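Per your request, structure below.
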């Protein structure tokens, strides 16, 4: 009996070590990125629903980047949102270089000309160089310009960042 119990406990311990438990603690599904510094990300489009563990909301990926700020001090990305994606937007910015970055999300017209500011957030040492904010989603299908800006107007390999926007 003791030998059987030991085998069961050893099997459970081995399986739990083999499973990446950090994924269960995150509120966002993880993107798998390459070691390259230039936007070669494998992007996860939707989170998977976990059956049997209560209500888990699938999240639609609107934007995902793992890059660095260009030498001009800002990067623009063109994205779109549909009301079928969800009624809440979560946006995220990690300032890997700890330089001070801002994420600005602008409403845009059909040609992606910015019309007005929808949301923004800035990194600093006081927020551990990270922005993570949830806001109500637009009530209509919308196009966005996502702009990542360095506070000092510079860029380069020292200005690495990760950014994501999800709807749920």
């Amino acid at each position: 009996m003791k030998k059987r119990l030991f085998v069961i406990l050893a099997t459970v311990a081995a399986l739990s070590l083999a499973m990446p438990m950090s994924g269960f603690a995150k509120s966002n599904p993880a993107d798998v990125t390459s070691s390259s510094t230039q936007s070669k990300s494998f992007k996860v489009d939707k989170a998977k629903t976990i059956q049997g563990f209560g209500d888990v909301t699938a999240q639609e990926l609107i934007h995902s980047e793992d890059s660095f700020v260009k030498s001009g001090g800002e990067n623009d990305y063109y994205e779109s949102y549909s009301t079928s994606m969800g009624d809440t937007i979560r946006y995220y910015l990690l300032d890997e270089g700890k330089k001070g970055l801002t994420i600005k999300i602008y409403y845009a017209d059909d040609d992606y000309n910015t019309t007005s500011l929808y949301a923004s957030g800035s990194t600093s040492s006081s927020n551990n160089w990270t922005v993570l904010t949830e806001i109500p989603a637009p009530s209509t299908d919308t196009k966005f310009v996502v702009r990542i800006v360095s506070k000092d107007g510079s860029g380069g390999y020292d200005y690495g960042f990760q950014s994501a926007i999800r709807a749920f």
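The helical segments are 2-18, 22-25.

Regards,
D.
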